[in-house]
Design brief:
Blueprint: H1 10-29, H2 34-59, H3 74-78, H4 84-94, H5 99-109, H6 113-123, H7 133-141
Helix pairs in contact: 1-2, 5-6
Length: 142
Amino acid sequence: MHQPPTPLSLLAEGEEEARRYKWIMSEKAGRDLGDWAIRCWVREHWNGFLRERWLEHLQGRAFWIELDREDYGLLQRAFRDSSPLFDEIFRRIKRGDENLEILNWALDEGVSTEEVIKILEAIDINSRRIECQFALKLSQAS
């Protein structure tokens, strides 16, 4: 097994993104929007930010220290021979679909739900949710 790339921090990168968002929104507003803008970024963007980084981790493209070490490169190990079904499910997960939406799509399209469930269980979206820690610090400071 090859060494993972330089470890990165979801929380540090997320906080940096939130600060950039705060700066941009404050510039547009002509005043400092403070913690409100940070909370706004977390509410509107954290889940998508987290999902993108989680998928990078699963693909073996970036190693995020807050994510399970064993999950790094999981997709390369578990799905070496990518299938059109896997590619479609991955595309749907990437755009933000949840398990139920993917299962409903499979039912609507007459796709084998057994195979879909096998892929979804391996990817395991629901166990990969992380609360935004820097937003918690803001809430506690208020």
